[in-house]
Write a structure and sequence with these properties.
- This protein is of the alpha+beta class.
- It contains eight helices and nine strands.
- The radius of gyration is 21 Å and the shape is elongated.
């Protein structure tokens, strides 16, 4: 992509809403040789620099809202000339809040002690556990490799209805009636919640189970 933008004198912006999840996924992350445990600080193949400015990215939206922060993102310019008028553009676009510093202060905590990486690593781990569990259920089809904290899967309608009935919330990805769903884990997803989702999906996938009656039939 960067080769095309350079050839046409265009600026390249990277949407980094899930930047942390992307970089810790697939073994992407260790920005230093510091000692780290394998769960929260997985060893890196690439640094953030490798997949941003070194790859030709001019501007990065460094997302935090989807990884533990509240309404806080950072716009990072690798070309300083592009940043000169940005504070005016931000205000004109309606993105300058009164007392913005209280929102921005979250970013300091976010990057301290690699919190952003640890949050993303946990979310990715929960997604992997969920995917493994779903993959063992008859009738469930994982549509894409799970490389971060999102799962796209095709579920039997009985399983979808059963999960909704048990209080689980998720989207039908292609609208009402679709059996393709998107499942997202987060920094605060608990292992017991993942286990409960898998157990419930297994229960409603049983051919003898009738969601309408809420009980086993034919036994």
């Amino acid at each position: 992509i960067s080769e095309v933008t350079r050839a046409h004198n265009l600026t390249l912006h990277m949407d980094g809403a899930r930047f942390a999840n992307a970089i810790v996924g697939a073994g992407f992350t260790n920005m230093s040789s510091e000692a780290s445990d394998s769960l929260l600080n997985p060893p890196l193949r690439y640094t953030p620099a490798d997949i941003t400015w070194r790859a030709g990215v001019d501007i990065l939206s460094f997302g935090a809202t989807k990884n533990g922060a509240m309404a806080a993102e950072a716009v990072i310019f690798f070309n300083r000339n592009l940043a000169e008028t940005f504070h005016f553009r931000r205000k004109r676009g309606g993105h300058l809040f009164s007392k913005m510093r209280f929102l921005s202060a979250q970013l300091e905590a976010y990057i301290t002690d690699n919190l952003w990486r640890r949050n993303a690593s946990h979310a990715n781990k929960m997604a992997a556990k969920l995917a493994d569990g779903l993959n063992s259920i008859p009738g469930v089809n994982l549509l894409h490799p799970v490389e971060a904290n999102e799962i796209f899967a095709e579920l039997p309608e009985a399983v979808i209805q059963g999960l909704y009935g048990e209080g689980f919330q998720f989207y039908r990805w292609e609208g009402e009636g679709s059996t393709i769903v998107r499942l997202v884990t987060a920094f605060n997803t608990r292992e017991e919640d993942v286990a409960a989702f898998i157990e419930t999906a297994k229960r409603y996938s049983t051919p003898a189970y009738s969601p309408a009656m809420g009980e086993l039939t034919g036994v």
